[in-house]
Amino acid sequence: MQVTETLSEGLKRELSFVVPASELASRLDKRLAEMKDKVRINGFRPGKVPAAHLKRLVGKSEMAQIIDTVIGDAIRTTVEERKERPALNPEVKLADTVDGEKLVEGQADLAFSASYELLPTFELKDISGVELERPVAEVSDAEVQEQLDRIAEGNRPFNAKDEGAKAENGDRVTIDFVGRIDGEAFEGGSAEGVDLVLGSGQFIPGFEEQLVGAKAGDEVTVKVTFPAEYPAAHLAGKAAEFAVTVKGVAAPGELALDDEWAKKLGMESLDKVKDAIRDQIRSGYEAATRAKVKRALLDKLDEAYDFALPTKLVDSEFETIWKQATEEMERAGRTFADEETTEEAARADYLKIAARRVRLGLVLSEVGEKNSVQVTDEEVSRALVERARQFPGQEKQVFDYYRSNPMALATLRAPLFEEKVVDFLLGQAKVTDKVVTKEELMKDPEEA
């Protein structure tokens, strides 16, 4: 086999391969000899099929398989000998001079090229001097009480009012309604038996107010305008009329927040309910803290590293980001003009994001490899269990899919590996806690 490097430019490489027809023919003869003793063909005793006859029957199909194997083995062996790390699988192209028919007949040399990009090499930076602030927020008693009150309101008993009694703010009305825009009913605008607490702000602004004073049996026409920022783009900013039938009116009953109330929720006591609420809020804060300090770390890494990237990796990442962004815009019925940008500018921005993701991914991978960061099978199994729980009733199918698909299983392992590498790096950097308010902790970094 003859191998020639035809391109070495930056991270790009291209190799030209020529495998003599004699080598291919030798492989085919060996394979046919192995098959001869096993194959069964009508008219011939086992092991007595003439090689020439067998070659006429399966020679071309077997040669096609041999060619695939030779190409794969040749590329893999050559890349290993060159001590190179391709970023993606090499692209293979048969030489224009190759006659496909003669090739599978074993009468022509196999000539092909393999083009690929290398993973970049770079020196890892010492981050022991990097200073990071980890924003933390304490859970206040007021927040716990606010959440407790919200839960209580959601479980407040209501008692039917006397016949003819009018609905007031705080009352619960049971309604049927049909919404129309320009006289036409619209999708999602109709429902029956809906419970609505007046003044709760559950419905479109202006809707609940128009039901104050209504009685059971009343039919009310509610006129509202959907907010301009309403999530459903086909309704945003449009005027609508709802034909509402009031089926019942109920007044809020007394609610005592005590141990007995807690037991109705399945908790031992009111203090246990408060503890559970506090833990839930704290868990949310810890997740936000983790996200903020991780982003700060990645920003520092992004500033510290600048090296050439494999264009195909960046392009692949960009396509993923772009598809997600444009699909979200389409679902929301928005345009680039609505986002105060243009498609060209948006593409440029997302390309920068793609490059950042690829660069940081390579850095984190290198850090993990050089420092022997490992994800255990047990950790992957736990992640798989959590994934399966997201599909109630289909757990077995989920388990079977991931266990039979190494690439899919890798998508569970990758984020675990990333988080472990982040933990390792945070352990190397100088991280100090900074107490912040809930609002500061939860603020979108882009708003800052």
UniProtKB/TrEMBL annotation:
<dbReference type="GO" id="GO:0005737">
    <property type="term" value="C:cytoplasm"/>
</dbReference>
<dbReference type="InterPro" id="IPR001179">
    <property type="entry name" value="PPIase_FKBP_dom"/>
</dbReference>
<dbReference type="Pfam" id="PF00254">
    <property type="entry name" value="FKBP_C"/>
</dbReference>
<feature type="domain" description="PPIase FKBP-type">
    <location>
        <begin position="170"/>
        <end position="230"/>
    </location>
</feature>
<dbReference type="InterPro" id="IPR027304">
    <property type="entry name" value="Trigger_fact/SurA_dom_sf"/>
</dbReference>
<keyword id="KW-0131">Cell cycle</keyword>
<keyword id="KW-0143">Chaperone</keyword>
<dbReference type="GO" id="GO:0043022">
    <property type="term" value="F:ribosome binding"/>
</dbReference>
<dbReference type="Pfam" id="PF05698">
    <property type="entry name" value="Trigger_C"/>
</dbReference>
<dbReference type="InterPro" id="IPR008881">
    <property type="entry name" value="Trigger_fac_ribosome-bd_bac"/>
</dbReference>
<dbReference type="InterPro" id="IPR046357">
    <property type="entry name" value="PPIase_dom_sf"/>
</dbReference>
<dbReference type="GO" id="GO:0051083">
    <property type="term" value="P:'de novo' cotranslational protein folding"/>
</dbReference>
<dbReference type="InterPro" id="IPR037041">
    <property type="entry name" value="Trigger_fac_C_sf"/>
</dbReference>
<dbReference type="InterPro" id="IPR005215">
    <property type="entry name" value="Trig_fac"/>
</dbReference>
<protein>
    <recommendedName>
        <fullName>Trigger factor</fullName>
        <ecNumber>5.2.1.8</ecNumber>
    </recommendedName>
</protein>
<keyword id="KW-0413">Isomerase</keyword>
<dbReference type="GO" id="GO:0043335">
    <property type="term" value="P:protein unfolding"/>
</dbReference>
<dbReference type="Pfam" id="PF05697">
    <property type="entry name" value="Trigger_N"/>
</dbReference>
<dbReference type="InterPro" id="IPR008880">
    <property type="entry name" value="Trigger_fac_C"/>
</dbReference>
<keyword id="KW-0697">Rotamase</keyword>
<keyword id="KW-0132">Cell division</keyword>
<dbReference type="GO" id="GO:0003755">
    <property type="term" value="F:peptidyl-prolyl cis-trans isomerase activity"/>
</dbReference>
<dbReference type="GO" id="GO:0044183">
    <property type="term" value="F:protein folding chaperone"/>
</dbReference>
<keyword id="KW-0963">Cytoplasm</keyword>
<comment type="similarity">
    <text>Belongs to the FKBP-type PPIase family. Tig subfamily.</text>
</comment>
<dbReference type="InterPro" id="IPR036611">
    <property type="entry name" value="Trigger_fac_ribosome-bd_sf"/>
</dbReference>
<comment type="function">
    <text>Involved in protein export. Acts as a chaperone by maintaining the newly synthesized protein in an open conformation. Functions as a peptidyl-prolyl cis-trans isomerase.</text>
</comment>
<dbReference type="GO" id="GO:0015031">
    <property type="term" value="P:protein transport"/>
</dbReference>
<dbReference type="GO" id="GO:0051301">
    <property type="term" value="P:cell division"/>
</dbReference>
